[in-house]
């Protein structure tokens, strides 16, 4: 029986078993449909399908049960309470639990570093905002100076013309005063 069980566990055995199981089910269903519809050979199809299913179910008894998985390897908390040697040596903690605690500590340290970095970032953002406010104020002041200069430049031609006109009038007045003084000097010298 060992070689038969081994054959059933092999890939070819599983394929053959699956074919026999499927064909037997098909013959049973077809025999039932033939029986209900009163087609010829209905009893034959039903009989062959049922016998095939009986053989398949009989062979199933020789199939090896499915392998049980060791879930406690993936989920160490399933091992607790079984009196493992590892859990007694580490104060009830299993090696996987110790590793989990280490990972948890590393994550907490990372979280602290991230919080510190966030505080530094917030401080830098505040300083940058203050600097931007100063730059904005300086820009406004420069705009005022520029506007004043633009007004001065636009008015500078007018100021130059007016200054020239005033200078010409002062020169004319000076020449008139000179003549008046000369006329007065001549009269005072002729006495």
From TrEMBL:
Identify the InterPro entries for this entry: GldL-like_N (IPR055087), Motility-assoc_prot_GldL (IPR019852)
| Residue stretches making up the Gliding motility protein GldL-like N-terminal domain | 20-79
Reading the lineage from the top rank, the first entry is Bacteria
* Keyword field: Membrane, Transmembrane, Transmembrane helix
> What stretches pass through the bilayer?
15-38, 44-64
Pfam families named in the record: GldL_N
Instruction: Name the NCBIfam families on file.
Output: GldL_gliding
In Swiss-Prot or TrEMBL terms, this protein is called Gliding motility protein GldL
Organism source for this protein? Xylanibacter muris
Q: What gene makes this protein?
A: gldL
């Amino acid at each position: 029986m060992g070689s038969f069980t081994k054959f059933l566990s092999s890939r070819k055995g599983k394929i053959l078993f699956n074919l026999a199981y499927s064909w037997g089910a098909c013959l049973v269903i077809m025999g039932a449909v033939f029986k209900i519809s009163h087609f010829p050979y209905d009893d034959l199809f039903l009989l062959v399908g049922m016998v095939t299913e009986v053989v398949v179910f009989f062979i199933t008894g020789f199939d090896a049960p499915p392998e049980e998985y060791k879930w406690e390897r993936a989920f160490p908390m399933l091992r607790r309470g079984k009196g493992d040697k590892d859990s007694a040596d580490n104060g009830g903690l299993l090696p996987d639990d110790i590793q989990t605690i280490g990972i948890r500590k590393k994550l907490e340290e990372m979280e602290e570093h991230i919080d510190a970095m966030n505080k530094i970032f917030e401080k830098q953002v505040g300083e940058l905002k203050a600097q931007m406010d100063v730059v904005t104020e300086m820009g406004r002041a420069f705009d005022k100076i520029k506007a004043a200069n633009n007004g001065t430049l636009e008015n500078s031609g007018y100021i130059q013309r007016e200054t020239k006109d005033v200078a010409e009038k002062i020169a004319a007045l000076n020449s008139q005063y000179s003549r008046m003084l000369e006329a007065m000097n001549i009269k005072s010298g002729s006495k």
